[in-house]
Every structure is written in C-alpha cells, then in structure tokens.
Amino acid sequence: MSAFRSTLRPSAFGCFARTHRTTVQAVRFQTTTSATASSATSSALPLTWPEYLTLRHRRRVLAQIFSIPGAIGGLVGGGAYFGSLEADPTQPIFGVEPMFVYAGATLGCMGLGYLAGPTIGTLFFKAINGSRNKAMDVMDKRFYEHIKARRVDPSYQSVNNPTPDYYGEKIKSMSTYRRWLRDQAAYRRKALHGMKEEEAL
C-alpha cells in the first residue's frame, strides 16, 4: 500500500504541475495576443487622435484666414477690370444700366474670391505639411466614419431645433470631441422625447 502511495503522489503532483504550466502559458499567450492586437490597432493609425485634431484645426483656421485676402483680391481685381470698361448709359445690359451691372459683377468677383480662399488655404497647409498629407487623408476618412456613426439622425431636426454641428466642424481637440458626443446624445434624447409626446397625442 505504501509503495502504491509513493508511486501515486509524484505522478499526481507531476500531472498538476504540467496542468498548471499549461494554464499559465495559455494565459500568457492570450495576454500577449491581446496586447499585440491592441498595439497593432493603435499603430494602424498614422497619427494619434490629438495630433490629428490639432492639425485639422490649423487647416481650418488657415482656410478661414485665406478667405479674407481672397475676398479683397477678388474685389480689387473685379473693380480694376470692370472699372476700366466704358459704360454707355444709352446701351443698357439686359435692361439695366452698365454701371450697376459692373458693380454687381465686381461684388460677384469678391464673393468668388471669398469662396476660393479656403481652397488656397488648404493648399498652403498641404505645402507646409507635405510629409503628413497622406496621414491626414487617412485620418480624415476615419474621422468622417466616426462622425457619421455617432451623429444624430437629420430627420429629427426642425427650423427651431437644428442638429448640433452635424459635420463636426467645431471639433478641435479630444475635449471638444467628447462635448460633441454629449451634445449629440442630449439632442437625440430630446428628439425622441418629443416624438413620444407626438405619438401620445
């Protein structure tokens, strides 16, 4: 009987030890796999979200800044061109005096310059951030997917209750992004509450 016990105990202990080692190795493998998957997901993005939002805000500011010289340039250019034309009051253009037509065309040039300003600002941003243009394109796509998945349904909006920042244009940092999420959730609750009241009526 003692010989049987002496034979059984080492065998049982060895089995337990092998099981314990296998369990530990499995846990380590799962932990390593999870960490590797997490790091692979984070490394898949060419920029971190704070870096991207900072660059996105700078690009937007440059686009707005260039609108001002664009409008001035359009006004000056249109005024110089149409001001050099001879205006004969006896020959109206579409029934309107040429002076008023030229003045309207000059204002139209100013408007075109204002609209072209953001495009020029964006090109300037790409010129000074050439190494990050491809990364910005990738992040722009991912950011749009995030916004599209989390923004409210536009069918809820009304004239007195428009959707809050539908395209996420005011997002310039992680804090403003979290605030945007709270605004979307609050608007969604408010819209659904109003729909329930209408259904009750």
What does this structure look like?
This protein has helices at 2-43, 49-83, 98-128, 133-150, 174-200. The protein has 201 residues and is mainly α. Helix 2 packs antiparallel against helix 3 (98-128). The radius of gyration is 33 Å and the shape is flat. The relative contact order is 0.09.
Keywords for this structure?
201 residues; mainly alpha; 0% strand; flat; disordered C terminus; transit peptide; transmembrane; mitochondrion inner membrane
Low-confidence runs: 1-20, 22-41, 197-201
Can you write the helix and strand succession as a string? Answer: HHHHH
* Average of per-residue pLDDT values: 79
Largest sheet: number of strands, sense, barrel closure? none
Helix content percent band = over 70%
Number of H- or I-type helical stretches: 5
Tally of DSSP β-strands: 0
First-residue to last-residue Cα separation: 86 Å
Shape: flat
| Rg on CA atoms, Å | 33 Å
Content-based structural category: mainly alpha
InterPro entries: Pam17
Membrane topology: Multi-pass membrane protein
Protein name: Presequence translocated-associated motor subunit PAM17
Function: Component of the PAM complex, a complex required for the translocation of transit peptide-containing proteins from the inner membrane into the mitochondrial matrix in an ATP-dependent manner.
